[in-house]
Amino acid sequence: MAFDYDLFVIGGGSGGVRAARLAAAEAGARVGLAEADRMGGTCVIRGCVPKKLMVYASSFREALREAADYGWSVAAGGFDWPRFRSRLHAELDRLERAYRDTLARAGVTVHDARAELEDPHTVRLATGERFRARHILLATGGRPDVPAREGAELGITSDEVFLLDRLPESMLIVGGGYIASEMACILNGLGVAVTQFYRGAQILRGFDDEARGHIAGTMREDGIDLRVGTEVLELAREGAGIRVRGSDGSDRVYGALLWATGRRPNTDGLGLEAAGVRLGRRGEVVVDRYSQTNVPSVYAVGDVTNRLQLTPVAIREAAAFVETVFHGRPTAFDHSLVPGAVFTQPEYGYVGLTEEEAREREPVEVYVTSFRPMRTAFIGRSERALMKLIVSRASRRVLGCHIVAPEAGEMIQLAAVAIGMGATKEQFDATCAVHPTLAEELVTMRAPVRTA
Ligand code: NDP
């Protein structure tokens, strides 16, 4: 059977681009890639990258206050959102061009069109073109999931935050996950009066309880009106704003509302039924550990599979796919021990088990320290950093590490190397401290605060 391509990738985000590039440049495969929107996907265009730049932008308000307390004469003007936004979009344009250049250099043929499957080996583009491919990789990512309710269209999602013409004076953020909590901190830092509704008892469900409580406390101290156990009962347009009645009895008008209520896999209209590809309960493509679907020629990586919705994970799944399919070395990415960071302010870096998960599995010792960082304690701030290690009593291995502190994302990356290698608590202790730093606390916690 003649194929036009060895690999056809649908979706030009982190996973799709990496797979296309590696298959073409390193395995010599003939590769086509279709992207209906901007190249770079969620991470580059409307996720991690613009978000992190907004984290930086928003951190200067506090930094300027700190500078004044350290003795600098500081006259802070207001934050110029349009100026920041145009610089942000210039940067995103540059990154998009870089992605396109990389694909072109690797010899990948890019089709700027929507694609869908016609059968297990055929892709049809919106342009009407058809291609036959030996292998097809689905890397279509996900999109914000907005509750199906009256008035939902009055709110925006994280996709639109980066496109706002102006920042509202006040905003209601609905949700308690990564995006809701990060956006609450960012917008608060940029001077927006932020209210956050979370339906459960504590934000960041699934993360370490102590870290969650610490972050929520700091967010409140920083001025975010965080209301847990609270849902939107009614919402309606009122003037330029949105009137919201909350289940906590609140009734007020917000300048804008952000739904940060989760994301869903992009599997609609992809022709997956025609090709016989099996979907899961949340509409995700079901794959095995090699990212292969029930249709042998069709694979899927990244958010569309709803495993761990993280850019580096999509990239590693893509690389493993290329190893398996184009180099003949069956390779499965190990989803355990994936470190990560939530870019709240302060940041939260994590790797391994939460205390709650670890206790369920085996007897553990828990080491915790909570302290005022030197930089801010010096100027009388009350904010605290939290560091926590969860240690197996039997093997002495560090099973989990949780850090809530400035630059926690940077610290956890390195802690993850040691923990991934199976480091024991005694090996942490044997490592000489770097002084004076925040991270030295990770190697100087002597006695467990509790055992379980
Ligand atoms: P999450 O799944 O993290 O959070 C969704 C939140 O919305 C939860 O608090 C959930 O509540 C709540 N929710 C869901 N449905 C409703 C509803 N109908 N009404 C009210 N609340 C609701 O999703 P996000 O969109 O925040 O992020 C998606 C994924 O993207 C993350 O899981 C993460 O993998 C990735 N991401 C990673 C980042 C990073 O690495 N720093 C940053 C941003 C995103 P409940 O807890 O009760 O279910």
| Topology-level CATH name of the largest domain | FAD/NAD(P)-binding domain
Total helical segments? 13
Bound molecules: NADPH dihydro-nicotinamide-adenine-dinucleotide phosphate
Q: CATH H level of the largest domain: which superfamily? A: FAD/NAD(P)-binding domain
Distance N to C terminus? 61 Å
Q: Please state the CA-atom Rg, rounded to the nearest Å.
A: 24 Å
Task: Explain what you see.
This protein has 452 residues and is an alpha/beta fold. The protein folds into 3 domains: 5-144 and 264-326, FAD/NAD(P)-binding domain, CATH 3.50.50.60; 152-261, FAD/NAD(P)-binding domain, CATH 3.50.50; 346-451, Enolase-like, domain 1, CATH 3.30.390.30. The protein is 32% helix and 24% strand. The protein is built from 13 helices and 22 strands. Strands 1, 2, 3, 4, 5, 6 and 16 form a 7-stranded mixed β-sheet that branches. It has a 6-stranded antiparallel β-sheet with strand order 17-18-21-20-19-22, sandwiched between helices. Strands 10-9-8-14 form a 4-stranded parallel β-sheet, with helices on one face. α3 (48-69) crosses α6 (178-189). The model has no long low-confidence stretch (mean pLDDT 97). The site of NADPH dihydro-nicotinamide-adenine-dinucleotide phosphate has 23 residues, from α6 and β17. NADPH dihydro-nicotinamide-adenine-dinucleotide phosphate binds at residues 147, 174-180, 182, 198-200, 205, 260-263, 309-310, 340-343.
